[in-house]
Amino acid sequence: MTPWLVALPVVLVVTVGSFLLLRTRRTGGLRILVAIDVAVLVAAAVLVATTLTSGPAAAEVTATGVVAADQASAGIGGTALIAAAIAVAGSSLGAAFAVAYTGSAALAAMSERPEIFGRAMVVVGLAEGIAIYGLVIAVILIGRA
Questions:
Q1: How distant, in Å, are the alpha carbons of 95, 103, 107 from that of 124?
Q2: pLDDT number for residue 32
Q3: Residue of 74, 73, 66, 81 whose CA lies nearest to 138
Q4: I want to staple 25 with a disulfide (CB 3.0 to 4.6 A). Which of 29, 31, 98, 127 is the partner?
Q5: Alpha-carbon distance 12 to 2, whole Å?
Q6: What is the pLDDT of residues 90-136, one digit of tens each?
């Protein structure tokens, strides 16, 4: 819990700094932020590659000579959790784009013909179902972790 409490002020400072940078320098500030984003992306990719290619950590043996079971399977569970996060994030982004386009089209169609409200909302609801599919996949992945 403590790392999150430390990270919150850092996120707040970075957000305010980004806003001020974009407000003072529009084009130059955007280039600086894109460069920082690329650097963070490369660092994250290196971290993931290092984590996935490294060997298992040495297990800590207790005084009775028993190795904790949760330490033995920490690598596989971590990969499943990352996959679950990617599934939720990807499906949520896909649902957001789908709802944005279908919702605007539905509103435009309803402004001309109000009687198609029910059909238009069904289409928007189907687009929202994409996010639910991602959540189902995430639950399955977490269950196997």
A1: 10, 6, 10
A2: 85
A3: 81
A4: 29
A5: 16
A6: 999 999 999 999 999 999 999 999 899 999 889 899 989 999 999 99
Tell if the pTM clears 0.70, that is, is over it: no
Report the amino acid identity of residue 143: G
* Token duo for residue 80: 């499943």
- Please state, as a whole number, how many other Cβ atoms lie within 10 Å of the Cβ of residue 135: 14
Q: H or E stretch including 17?
A: helix 2-24
Q: What six digits make up the tokens of 103?
A: 């919702």
Would you call 103 helix, strand, or coil by DSSP?
helix
Summarize pLDDT for 56-76 with one digit per residue, the tens: 665 555 555 555 555 445 556
Give the residue among 119, 48, 39 at the shortest CA–CA distance from 82.
48
| Residue spans of alpha helices (H) in 54-73 | 69-72
Closest Cα to residue 94, out of 138, 137, 124, 130? 130
> Are 29 and 22 within 8 A, CB to CB?
yes
- Count the residues in the chain: 145
